[in-house]
Predict the structure.
Amino acid sequence: MSMDAVTLPDLSGRTAIVTGANSGLGVETTRMLAGMGARVVMAVRDVDKGREAADAVRGETEVRWLDLADLASVRAFAKEWKGDLHLLINNAGVMAIPESRTKDGFETQFGTNHLGHFALTNLLLEHVTGRVVTVSSSLHRRAPGIEFDNVDLVGRYTPYRAYNQSKLANLLFTLELQRRLADAGSPVLAVAAHPGYAATNLQSHSGSRVQRALLAVGNRVFAQNATAGALPTIYAATQDVPGAAYAGPKNMGGQRGAPALAGRSEAAWNSVAAHRLWALSEELTGVTFPLTSSTG
């Protein structure tokens, strides 16, 4: 199997989790990993849709319920996990939705896109043997930083301000996770990816009819398909890349084309902010890093 002349490994005997695997980038990521021989656990909020998606995938799959907007669900999912986990693909997300709250009271985009995956990753980390891949977005560049004193954006909420902040949080999480893994002497890599401009149903949940119509036109005219959008995730998961690497399409300013290592904003390299975000995330979720530092 090849991907624009990049040879992909045989993942027979390996297990992967893909969150949000019932549609869009998630199901395409599942399809490619299963095609490489991996057993893929499709972690989905809607089990019926997950089973429909699994029926369309050739290879070994299993559907399990996971609601990243509910920390009790995250804990239950992780508690039931047994055995090694080669790849954890933090793919699920919500985009530019009207203001709302998760089951635990967090702003929904920050709570789902970042805090849910933060908790899931740390609760599963002792099982992970390969990589943690977190899907971000090129729109992280539009977030000047994390609004630490008001992460729920109370009184300041706009759908894209919240989305952009959550996607910056994904990259800062990856940066600090990699630092902690290295400090613990772990061979596991924390990496990230973005799909560029990919036509998926992620853009269809805006509360604005006009915005949905404009995005639909953009999807038809400019976007690459979901398969192409999933390739950077596969690249980050399987190619020889350094820790904290960030992959994305290499053409049209990072919006289309074959995957390669991608640039990120200065804010996404801020190690002080990454450390502060980690501490805040531990406080909000009650979940901590499970590995012991090798440096004492």
About this structure: Residues 196 and 255 are 4 Å apart (CA to CA). The radius of gyration is 18 Å. DSSP finds eight helices and ten strands in the chain.
